[in-house]
Fold this sequence. Notes:
Strand content: 15-25%
Structural class: alpha/beta
Bound molecules: NADP nicotinamide-adenine-dinucleotide phosphate
Mean pLDDT: 96
Strand order of the largest sheet: 3-2-1-4-5-6-9
Radius of gyration: 16 Å
Amino acid sequence: MKVILFGGTGMVGQGVLLECLLDPEVDEVLSIGRSATGQAHPKLRELVHPDLLDLSAVESRLSGFDACFFSLGVSSAGMKEEDYRRVTFDITLAAAQMLARLNPTMTFIYVSGAGTDGSERGRTMWARVKGQTENALLRLPFKAVMFRPAGIVPLHGITSKTRVYRVAYALTRPLWSVLLGAFPRYVTTTEQVGRAMLRVAKQGAPKPILETRDINALR
Ligand SMILES: NC(=O)c1ccc[n+]([C@@H]2O[C@H](COP(=O)([O-])OP(=O)(O)OC[C@H]3O[C@@H](n4cnc5c(N)ncnc54)[C@H](OP(=O)(O)O)[C@@H]3O)[C@@H](O)[C@H]2O)c1
């Protein structure tokens, strides 16, 4: 299986990358981002591209893939809607539209988040924009699956790129195993998200939108 990964430098993406590299059924991972993951592995290829809104210059490298795991994203805290939308909707759809055209049998998995507003009309800006993004992806001509995790515990030394999350995770570290055991409907791990993505890419998803409990059920 050949996989494209967006967001491979982030907390979720690092976890997904690790699981891809460990999986014997994954032959190649192409990590695409504005910065490199900094990792070296025989299965890993890196495509560093400063303008992710326009992938036309690298289009020739984007065919022949079975899955795309899209964990590029940003916290909406302190952002204007137009700026949040540029990262969340515009970058995602620019990549997805090209990939759907080049790889119509691909499975495309997008990490949105719990509370995403599929009605597109709610008052919460981030939820509305993520809902618009999900709905647009679900209309594209490939197999699109939405992952809506709530809390994600980083394992295997993985850290968030977002400072506020790094601090929060450091403060709550002693509680993680308790939270995981007590709230499996709301808490998952970077490892489980990666494994669930691979499972969906290989065997399909039970439904197009997967909440935390659905992600945790995929083994
Ligand atoms: N962490 C959680 O608990 C959690 C829970 C639910 C949903 N999610 C969602 O999962 C996604 C990933 O979260 P995360 O925790 O992995 O975030 P993160 O650690 O902050 O990583 C963000 C990733 O997105 C990339 N990125 C951000 N802004 C970009 C831009 N303008 N242009 C290009 N790349 C950009 C970063 O690349 P650079 O290295 O180049 O900055 C990095 O790879 C987000 O959409 C988030 O809402 C996260």
